Amino acid sequence: MLDADVEVDRREFTVCATLRVAPGERLALFGPSGAGKTTLLEAIAGLVRPRRARVELGGRVLTSTESPGACFVPPWQRRVGLLRQDPGLFPHLSARGNLRYAPGVDPSGRELAQVAEVLGLSGLLSAMPARLSGGQAHRVALGRLLLAHCEALLLDEPYTGLDASLRRVLTELVIELTGARSVPAVLVAHELAEAQAFADRLAILDRGRLLQVGAPDEVVLRPASRRVAELVGYLGFVTRREQDGAVAGIHPERVVAGAHPGHGVVLAGVVAGGRPAGAGWEADLRVGDENVVCRLRERHAEAGGELVVTAIDPPWFGPDGAAIDPPGRPPAPAWPPDPEQIRT
Amino acid sequence: MSWAPNPAAAGGAVRREDPSGPRRRRGPGPATALSRVRSVSGAASVAGALVIWVALLGPVIALLTHLSGHEIISALTGPGDLDPLVTSLAAGGVTLAVLLVFCTPLAWMLARGSLPFPRVWEAGVLCSLLLPPLVIGLLLIFMVGPYTPIGELLNATPWHLSATNTFLALVIAEVYESAPYYVVGAQAAFADVDPRMEQQAALLGDRPRRVFRRVTLPLAAPGLGVALSVAWARAMGAFGAVIIIAYHPYGLPLQIYITLQETGLASALPYALVLLVVALPLPLAAYTWSARARRRRRG
User: Fold this and answer.
1) Among A317-331, B164-178, B190-204, whose mean pLDDT is lowest?
2) Sheet with strand A52-57: strands edge to edge
3) CA distance A131 to chain B (A)
4) Rounded mean pLDDT of B248-255?
5) Same domain, B53 and B121
6) Which CATH number applies to A2-221?
7) Which residues of chain B from 211 to 250 reach within 8 Å of chain A, CB to CB?
8) Which end of chain A is less congested by CB atoms within 10 angstroms, N or C?
9) Looking at the domain assignment, is residue B117 inside a domain?
10) What is the pLDDT of residue A331?
11) Of A109 and B97, the one with more pLDDT
12) How do the domains of chain A map onto residue ranges?
C-alpha cells in the first residue's frame, strides 16, 4: 500500500494532497499543466523535501515530518521507481547495462533474460540507447525499474510524444506488469483518454488541490464541481434561471441529435459553426447567450441553421460551482435506451 | 471534395507548357542554381579552412624547416640536456594530480550550484583566468615567498620546504596558471550532465558517491578529458609565473628562454620542438576521444 499525505510549498501555491493506492492498483493523476502533479510524485520519490508529509510504502515510513519520529528516507533507499517522459537511459551503457544497473539485480542474468523476453527486448540488449526508438527506450526504462524490484511505480507523463498505437501497447504492458507484481502505480497524465485507459481510479488535481478522486467514469460523468467538469472536458454550461440558477454541464460527447426529454436536457439553438471531428461532426451551438459544443454522428445542420439536441443526463452545479442533484426531476434513465423500451 | 489545385480557377486559362522554351531563356533552374551556390560556398569554406590551418600551423612548419635531425640529436644528447624535459614532465604530472584531486570537486559543486555564493566563486576563477601570468608570479612572491607567513610555515616543516626556486615552486606556478582552465572546462562538462540522470540512478538504489562514479563521471568524462588536456598544455607552457618564482629548476619553457638568451635562436629550436611534442599530443588525443565518445552516445 502506498499511503501519501503531502504538503509541498511551491512559488505560486502549496501542493496539498492525500493519496492511498493499494498493491496492484493504478491511480491516474489528471490536471492542467502546472497543477502540481509532478511535484507530488517527486515528493513521494524523495526528490523534493515537503513542508509537511507522511509517506508510507508497504508499512515502511519513507517521509514523516511529525515529531517525534520525523524521518526522510533518501531516494536510493525508497525502492520507488520513477519513469518520466524522457526514459532517462544512461547513454554510456548499452540496453543490457541499463537493465542491470540497479545494485540488487540478479547476477545470473536469468531474471534479466525473462524481463527482456516479456518486454520484447531480447534482440536489443547490446544496442546503445541512442540506437533505440522511443518505444524501445521506454521499454528498457520500464524493464530497468522492474529489475530494480521497485515497490511502487510512478509514471510522469511517460508516453508523451509517442504515437497512439505505441502508447496503447505500453499502457497495456504496464497494466499487466503492475498487476502481476502487485505494485501500486501512479500515472500523471494531461490527456484524459490516457488516464482513463490506465487507471482504476482517477484523481483530479488543480492548483495543488485534489478536487475529486473516484472511478474514471464516475469522475467524468458525475464531476464534483464545475471546475472538475471543465478539466474533464465539459465545454458548455447552460444556466437554467427558472431553477435557481442551476447550471447543466454539457460534454460534447454526451449529446445526441433530436429531442429526448426523458433522457436529459433538450437544447434548441442556432449552429454558429462546425468542423469534422474524428468520424463525426462537431458543431458550435448557440443556445441563448451560451455556446455549447456538440459532437454528433452526422452533420445535421449548416451554419445559421436551427438544431435541437439532447444533453444526456448532464451533471448539475449550483451557483457556487458545487455539484447538485438534477433539479426538479429524478435522474434520467440510462442512455442509450433499452431497445425493448424503444419498441414499446 | 478534392484538394488538388485547379489551374483554371487559380489563373484563368490553362497555359500550355513548352519544356524547352521559357526555361532556357530564364537561365538555370532553382535546383541548378542552388547546387552552384553550394559548390561555391563549399570551395570557399575549404579555402578558408586552409588559410586558417596555414596561419595557425605556419610557425610549426617554419620550425620543422629550420631543424635537421642532426641538430636535434646533438642538442639533446649532451649530459643533462634532457633534465628540463624530465622536470617539466614531473611538474606537469604533479600539477594534473593536484587539479584532479582539488579542482574536480570544486568544478562539480560549481556546476551543481551547491556552494554558497556561487557567483563569488565563479568570479574568483574568472579573475585568476584573466590575470596576466607575470602578475600571478609577482603576487605569488608576496603570498608564498620566504618572508611570508606561508613561506615561514613551509620552512618550519622537517623538510625545510620553500616555495621559491624549487620544484614545489614550479608546481605552484603551474597550478596557478592551469587551474582556471581546468575548473572552467570541468564545470561545463559537469553542467552538461542532466541532473535527472543522477536522480534516476539514485532512485534505482545508488548512493551519491556511487552515482558520481557510475553516472556523473562517465558522462562528464569527454569534457573532463578535454579540460584536463588543456590544463596540461598550459602547465607545460607555463612561463610568466614560473620565471618569477621558479627560475630553478629549469623546465622546458625556461630552458628555451635561457638558451635563446645565451646561445641564440638555432640552439633553442630543438627544445621548442620537444615542448611541442610533449604538450600537444595529449590535447589532440583527448579531443579525438571526446568527439568519438560524444558521437557514440548520440548514435
Assistant:
1) A317-331
2) A71-72, A60-64, A52-57, A2-9, A14-21, A209-214, A201-206, A26-30, A185-189, A152-156, A80-83
3) 6
4) 91
5) no
6) 3.40.50.300
7) 214-215, 218-219
8) C
9) yes
10) 55
11) B97
12) 2-221, 226-343
What pLDDT was estimated at residue A302?
78
B142 with B198, same domain?
A: yes
Average pLDDT over residues B115-133: 90
B85 & B57 share domain: no
Asked if B297's CB is within 8 angstroms of A90's CB, the reply is no
CATH of the domain at B264: 1.10.3720.10
User: Is there a contact between A130 and B296 if contact means CB atoms under 8 Å apart?
Assistant: yes
Q: Is the ipTM of this complex over 0.85?
A: no
pLDDT (0 to 100) of residue B3: 38
Residue written as cell 513521494? Answer: A44
The minimal CB distance from B219 to the residues A74, A92, A131 is found for A92
Q: Which residue has the higher pLDDT, A337 or A25?
A: A25
Is the confidence at residue A212, as pLDDT, over 70? yes
Residue B281 has a pLDDT of 87
CA distance A86 to chain B (A): 9
For the stretch B48-73, pLDDT in tens is 988 988 888 888 888 888 888 887 88
Sign of CA dihedral B204, B208, B212, B214: negative
Predicted confidence band of residue A230 (pLDDT cuts 50, 70, 90): very high
For B299, the closest of A45, A92, A131 (CB atoms) is: A131
Residues of chain B positioned with their CB less than 8 A from the CB of A145 = 204
Tell me which residues of chain B, numbers 184 to 203, contact chain A at a CB-CB cutoff of 8 Å.
Answer: 194, 196-197, 199-203
Q: Measure in Å the smallest separation between the Cα of A48 and chain B Cα atoms.
A: 11
Find the domain containing B53 and state its range: 29-65
B61 plus B107 within the same structural domain: no
pLDDT of residue A239: 86
Question: Which chain A residues have a beta carbon less than 8 Å from that of B206?
Answer: 76, 103
Cβ atoms B232, B287 nearer than 8 A: no
> In this complex, is the C-beta atom of B298 within 8 Å of any C-beta atom belonging to chain A?
yes
As given in the structure block, the three cell numbers for residue B103 are: 579542482
Q: How far apart are CA B186 and CA B290, in angstroms?
A: 13
How many domains is chain B built from? Answer: 2
Q: For an interface test with B, which of A84, A90, A133 has the most B Cβ atoms less than 10 Å from its Cβ?
A: A90
Of B202, B219, B299, the CB nearest to A128: B299
Residue with cell 621559491: B164
DSSP notation for A101-130: -STTS-TTSHHHHHHHHHHT-GGGTTS-GG
| End-to-end C-alpha distance for chain A, whole angstroms | 51
Q: Give A35-67 pLDDT, tens digit per residue.
A: 999 999 999 999 999 999 999 999 899 999 988
pLDDT for residue B235: 94
Higher pLDDT residue, A245 or B95? B95
Distance CA(A256)–CA(A247), nearest Å, equals 19
Please list every residue in chain A whose beta carbon sits closer than 8 Å to the beta carbon of residue B215.
90
Residue A310's contacts (CB-CB under 8 Å, 6 or more residues apart) are A255, A256, A257, A258, A259, A260, A261, A263, A264, A265, A266, A267
Give the Cα separation of B283 and B299 in Å (integer): 24
CA distance B199 to B182: 26
